[in-house]
Amino acid sequence: MTELQAEQGTPALDVSRVEAKPRRNRDALIALAVFVVLALLPMVFSSKLLLDFVIRCAAYGLFATSLNLLVGYTGLTSFGHGMFFGLGAYGFGLMMQKTGVPIPVAFVATLAITFGVALVIGAICVRLKEIYFAFVTLAFQMLIHSTILSWVSLTGGDQGLRGGIPRPSFWGIDLSNHLHLYVMSCALLVIGLLLMCQIAQSPFGYTLRMIRDNATRASFIGIDVWRAKLTIFVLAALFASTGGIIMALFVSGAYPEFAYWTMSGEGIFINMLGGVTTFLGPMVGTVLFLVLNDTVTRLTDYHGLVLGIVILFFAIGLRKGLMDFVIEWYAQRRNGRGERD
Amino acid sequence: MLPLDLDALTGCLASSACLVTQTTSGFIIGMLLFLVAVGLTLIFGVLKVVNFSHGAFYMFGAYFAMTTYQFSGSFALAMLCGAAGTAIIGLIFERGFMSRVYGADVLMQLLVCYAFVLIFDDVVRMIWGPEFKSMGMPAAFQVAPLFIAGGVVPPYYLLLIGVALAAAVVLGLGLVRTRIGKVIRAAAHNPGMVSALGINTGLIYGGVFALGGMLAGLAGALAAPVRSLTPGMGFSVLIESFIVTVIGGMGSILGALIGALLIGLIRSFGSLGFPLFTEGLMYLFMVIVLVSRPTGLFGREVA
After folding, report:
1. How far is CA A280 from CA A21, A317, B111, in A?
2. Which residues of B touch A (CB under 8 A)?
3. At residue B65, does pLDDT exceed 70?
4. Could you give the dihedral angle defined by the CA atoms of residues A223, A224, A227 and A229, in that order, rounded to the nearest 10 degrees?
5. Of A85, A141, A203, A247, which is the most exposed, with the fewest CB atoms less than 10 Å away?
């Protein structure tokens, strides 16, 4: 559009060029500030419930935001993203229970396992389009879930990984201390979000958006679409796995539900709730979802029924997430003011 | 590490009795899957949406059949109610909700279906309770099993296979030979043109959805005497029938039949050779098909 206008003699649209480095510094500063606020929170509100809530937000938030890298940025509707959440929880839990290595080693090793698994599954899945992709990822999720259920000697079957996960202290951090665990989860969340934000803003992130909008064109100008999709699939899996690790540390165990398809469904719903057009949408969605889920679970036994109706309301009634509304409202307001000036 | 029991598998392949028994049980699984998968593939072929809540229709069929059987004692009426009741639910579901998200992206369609899986499971839990239920074998079929080449074949299995095959033939012929079948195929190919010719495409969409739901409901009703009923029973069937459609090719009825039989046989023989890895075998097979033929065995390249 802009090129067309320029040829006709009208001035080209003024696209403000943002230098990458100051922006990166700004993001890092914001992340640091958020982390400090979160870390100081226990001094003001010492309620254990609140801290628990934030830890769960960290686990779900990393999971949902990483899913948004696939759904919102690349247009890959993964319906099996929960498998990496489960893989992280089980991989980490088993590593700690069976080998007794220090926590950082287990953390890195779990991510390495996730990397390998995601590479193999991704290599098969990203060849497929849209609904095929959604269902093949779902099928892999069910494969991992059924493996967890049937491999009782290793995973404890449908009882989950019980007996607690040992949490030896390292570098002066003792994760069996609730406050340490809280600060650690916040740190992982903030670092994870910062990294994902950098991915989204990098040239690679814009390549992903292009693939989403027009994959054929992207491949015509020389982008290896398959490789780019596979890269983001694996990266997103790593962040989801980190979320799973936080969850495993939090509940001191791992349950088959972490790898069940509902986990992926919840991830998609969270993205829908918050909106997929903004980077922080899924994070907002996470908070909304957890509040909603906790309230509904407390009020009624039929929590699927209520949740389903809320999902329908969002999917058919509103057709967009909360952050999309906020952005639209903000843009409208700014436009309105611009016209008045 | 892999739980292997190849002796059991080779032993079974050598004995005709075991071969017959396993093949029939594979056919049972396959035929039930076929009825669910063919609805899925039909809906996809015409409406271009994947009905993620199709498993719930199977579940409703089973529960409707059980309740009707308990009240009336008539097995035929139970089948009829299972199929018809589910068809009505399918029609309402399509007209009321799915038709609103046809233009939207896949994410929306998945979400609407996801919502309904949650709602339907809870509705069943409300009405029939969360515990396992069983319908029990109808009196007419409580007779001694047949012995074919030494293998045990309950007569009910023959009925089940017969009904499913009949449904396949009627559906296949109906789509090719009848006027309605032609309209449906035309709507699948070019809905804009069909509606320009004065045919109500909304009605066709609703009808196809009802038909798909009816077939899934019939599968559920047929399965009710031989399976236990529980809320959420539809989900594993949905996943398996999706694997069937992926293997057979989306939109192909013959593909659904062949795919379902293959999966059924893999399940029944796999449970001998790889007792803990039976489901893994199915996924493995699916992956092999997908990698070598991404559109499935009988699928055509979708434009």
Report:
1. 21, 22, 20
2. 44, 50, 97, 100-101, 104-108, 110-112, 114-119, 121-123, 125-126, 235, 239, 242-243, 246, 250, 276-277, 279-280, 283, 286-287, 290-291, 294
3. yes
4. 50
5. A203
> Is there a contact between A233 and A56 (Cβ–Cβ < 8 Å)?
no
Residue B62 forms part of a structural domain = yes
Chain A to chain B Cβ contacts (< 8 Å): 110
Name which of A67, A132, A216, A306 to mutate to probe chain B: the one with the most chain B Cβ atoms within 10 A of its Cβ.
A132
Both tokens assigned to B78: 């139970």
Residue B207 maps to a domain = yes
Buried b (16+ CB within 10 A) or exposed e, A85-100: bbbbbbbbbbbbbeee
What gap in Å lies between CA A76 and CA A130, rounded to an integer?
7
Compute the average pLDDT of residues A76-82: 85
Q: Report the SS3 class of residue A161.
A: strand
Query: Is residue B147 classed as helix, strand or coil in its secondary structure?
Result: strand
How many angstroms separate the Cα of B32 from the Cα of each of B162, B164, B240? 11, 7, 11
Query: How many angstroms away from the CA of B5 is the closest CA of chain A?
Result: 16
Looking at the 3D structure of chain B, how many domains does it have? Answer: 1
> Does the CA dihedral B227-B233-B239-B245 come out positive or negative?
positive
- Per-residue pLDDT tens over the stretch A229-264: 899 999 999 999 999 988 888 887 778 888 887 788
Measure Cα distances from B187 to A46, B120, B202 in Å: 63, 29, 10
Per-residue pLDDT tens for A196-214? 888 888 888 888 888 888 8
Residue B194 lies in a domain: yes
Query: Would you list the domain boundaries of chain A?
Result: 22-259
User: Length of chain A in residues, anyone?
Assistant: 341
Q: Say whether B126 and A131 touch across the interface (CB within 8 A).
A: no
The parent domain of residue B41 ranges over 34-129+151-232
CB contact under 8 A, B276 and A311: no
pLDDT in tens, A280-321: 878 888 888 888 888 887 777 777 788 888 878 877 776 666
Place of tokens 């992709």: A133
ipTM entry: 0.74
* Contact indicator for A279, A200 with CB cutoff of 8 Å: yes
HSE toward the beta carbon, residue A12, CA cutoff 13 A? 7
In a domain, B249, yes or no: no
Give the closest-approach CA distance of B112 to chain A in angstroms: 6
Q: Which residues of A touch B231 (CB under 8 A)?
A: none
B242 CB neighbours in chain A (<8 A) are 135, 138-139
pLDDT value, residue A234:
92
For chain A, how long is the longest CA-to-CA vector? 74
